[in-house]
Amino acid sequence: MAIDWIGFAYAALVAVGGVVGYTRKGSKVSLAAGLTFGSVAGYGAYCITRDPRNVKISLFSAFLLTIIMGMRFKRSKKLMPAGLVACLRRIHLIWTDFLSTERRDLQLNINAY
User: Fold this and answer.
1) Which distant-in-sequence residues (6+ apart) come within 8 Å of 64 by Cβ?
2) What is residue 52's DSSP assignment?
3) CA–CA separation, 69 and 104 (whole Å)
4) According to DSSP H, which parts of the chain are helical?
5) Helix and strand tally (H, E) in the chain?
6) What is the dihedral of CA 68, 70, 74, 77, to 10 degrees?
7) What are the distances in angstroms from CA 51 to CA 1, 55, 73?
8) Which of 43, 45, 36 has the alpha carbon at shortest distance from 18?
């Protein structure tokens, strides 16, 4: 059972980003969104760790956060934080898809023998 370290690191980064947004600007929305999406991403990483084919939660949170932060970036044209989070989430989305495909192929190869 491989641990999804990248997924857990991303979840921590999102949660810390929410806390930083709250401490710098006093934004309660940033705090709530950061902790919520960080928790969901962490749970998604946990699900992938338990069952490599269970990527639904991680992909759902990746898709939703990419859309939200992409729209914010398009509106504000500021890289921080919306553009950075959208880019990181997109990279994590690609990583999660790669992991699910790689592990599914590995599982098929194991079952073939």
Assistant:
1) none
2) T
3) 30
4) 5-25, 28-50, 56-76, 84-112
5) 4, 0
6) 110
7) 8, 8, 34
8) 36
Contact 90, 66 (CB under 8 A): yes
Tokens, residue 71: 């729209």
How long a stretch of residues is the chain? Answer: 113
pLDDT at 105 over 60: no
Residue bearing tokens 């500021």: 78
pLDDT of residue 35: 93
Q: Which residue has the tokens 């939660």?
A: 57
Determine contact, residues 95/9, Cβ cutoff 8 Å: no
Contacts for 20 with CB less than 8 Å, ≥ 6 apart = none
Predicted TM-score (pTM) above 0.90: no
* Listed residue (6, 93, 104, 17) closest to 57, CA to CA: 93
- CB-count exposure of residue 86 (10 Å: 0-12, 13-18, 19+): buried
